[in-house]
Amino acid sequence: MKRPIVGIEADVGKNERGLRYAKVYEGYYEAVFAAGGDPILLPPLEGEESASRALALVDAVVVPGGDDLPAQDYGEEPLICERSGAVDARRYEFGRALVRGAVSADRPLLGVCYGHQLLNVALGGALVQDIPIQLGIQETHRIAVGDVRHLVELEEGSRLARLARARRGEVNSRHHQSVKRAGDGLKVVGRAPDGVIEAVEAEGRRFVVGVQWHPERMGPGSLGWGVFEALVEAAR
Questions:
Q1: What is the CA radius of gyration of the chain?
Q2: Where are the domains of the chain?
Q3: How is 99-153 classified by DSSP, letter by letter?
């Protein structure tokens, strides 16, 4: 059976000489390969046509973690704190077009952390800009060296609950923002015990899922690499 081609949207880095480069952490392409897909890198190029051409090459898309989305694009003034870090502008424009194109074409899509938030904002949703300041939650989701872990409560009948074969599971956590209002066509299907939104799904699509945790770092298991397996299966 042909292995689906899974495009992984790339972030942008800059070396000590100021040269920009595309980057994807190996956990993403290892998880895609272990799930039965062949990963390729989708670097951020200018123009909506570049996202359309990239989408035409792949059977599914993964949007990995990253930095903070521009608050003005969901109708808010930016809240700046020591945890803030703006996403590269070219990455954001390319990724937003890629997400909207994938949803429109019913191409299987998985958003992870930043990718989960981008999916939400690209479809008209809004974010909590800083969990400690705006929600008063200090520890559960903190950005720290390594991941913290907590439970996630899954909506009965959701794709993720069926995948986990349970209404709850343990996930990792390393973020300071979260979904506040779900975008058009998205349904909240996972929350931490403190109420922070951890997962969304699009109804009526083959596979459009956003998770706040990092399944690529969790290894084998239903809410870890199992999420990538479900993406690849949908791509088949």
A1: 16
A2: 5-235
A3: HHHHHHTT--EEEETHHHHHHHHHTT-EEES-HHHHH---STT--BSB-EEEEEE
Are 78 and 129 in contact by the 8 Å Cβ rule? The answer is yes
pLDDT one-digit tens code per residue, 67-122: 999 999 999 999 999 999 999 999 999 999 999 999 999 999 999 999 999 999 99
CA 131 – CA 139 distance, rounded (Å): 10
Q: What is the pTM of this model?
A: 0.96
Round to whole Å and give the CA distance between 186 and 205. Answer: 10
Contact assessment for residue 156 and residue 189, using Cβ atoms and an 8 Å cutoff: no
* Of the options 3.40.920.10, 3.40.640.10, 3.40.50.880, 3.20.20.70, the CATH number for the domain spanning 5-235: 3.40.50.880
Per DSSP bridges, beta strands 60-63 and 5-9 are parallel
- How far is residue 194's CA from residue 15's CA, in Å, rounded to a whole number? 39
d(CA 179, CA 182): 7
H or E stretch at 30: helix 26-34
CA dihedral 225, 185, 25, 215 (to 10 degrees): -30
- Residue 57: CB atoms within 10 A of its CB come to 10
> Apex CA 134: angle with CA 131 and CA 139, to 5°?
35
CB atoms within 10 A of CB 193: 11
> d(Cα 10, Cα 133) in Å, to the nearest integer?
30
φ and ψ of 165, to 5 deg:
55, 35
Quick one: CA torsion of 124, 179, 181, 232, rounded to 10 degrees?
A: 60
Which active-site residues does the annotation give? 113, 214, 216
